[in-house]
Amino acid sequence: MRLGFDIDGVIANFSLPLIERINKEYNVAVKESDIYCYDLNIVFGITKTEEATLVEDILINNLPLYDGAKETLEKLTREGHSIYLLTGRWGHLRDATVAWLKEKGVPYTELHLLDVGKKHQANIVPMDVIVEDSLTEALEWSNKVKNIFIYDHPWNKTLNLRGLIKRVYCWNEIYHEIQQLQTRQK
Ligand SMILES: [Mg+2]
């Protein structure tokens, strides 16, 4: 299958270094649960420009991986799936992103750096699965892709009234869900 994965908030733990930085810089005790929505300028009460600088600073540092991300992507690759990394990171971060993926040993088939908020418009091959942490992106993808998984975080809560997305809590669960889809396709 063709599997599309977002990077930040799905593969890379962006919130951990972000919170450390915010707590140090502003002398506060922010917790992950305080990040109640995706827009950091709203959450922290900073300008969009400050947000962009902050985000880039965090992204170019060596972000940790979520538990099981690398191992699961390796397993999926061995099983013959194609791994498309679909990130809203800015284009000028391509080299830094490629170097980080290499250093962390994250396997992938293709890497696409796409405009934030326009990922779903990307001209890429049809995907069988998308794993996202942004509700906006996930819901937009649901017009094109049948299986949308949202990686659970405080910033992506929803009543999910139409069931357009399925919530997943860890990489083991992502693997399990993909296995189930594969079985159903056969
Ligand atoms: Mg993300």
- Which range best describes the helical content: under 10%, 10-25%, 25-40%, 40-55%, 55-70% or over 70%? 25-40%
How are the strands of the largest sheet arranged?
3-2-1-4-5-6
Give me the Rg, rounded.
Answer: 16 Å
CATH class category name of the largest domain: Alpha Beta
Q: What is the count of distinct domains?
A: 2
**N-end to C-end Cα span:** 11 Å
**Percentage beta strand:** 5-15%
Compute the average pLDDT. 94
Report the CATH architecture of the largest domain: 3-Layer(aba) Sandwich
Oligomer: single chain
**What are the bound molecules?**
magnesium ion
* Total helical segments: 7
Which descriptor suits the 3D outline? globular
Reading the helices and strands in chain order gives EHHHHEHEEHEEH
Q: Considering the protein shown, what is the CATH homologous superfamily of the largest domain?
A: HAD superfamily/HAD-like
Helix and strand content put the structural class at: alpha/beta
In short:
The protein is an alpha/beta fold. 39% of the residues lie in helices and 14% in strands.
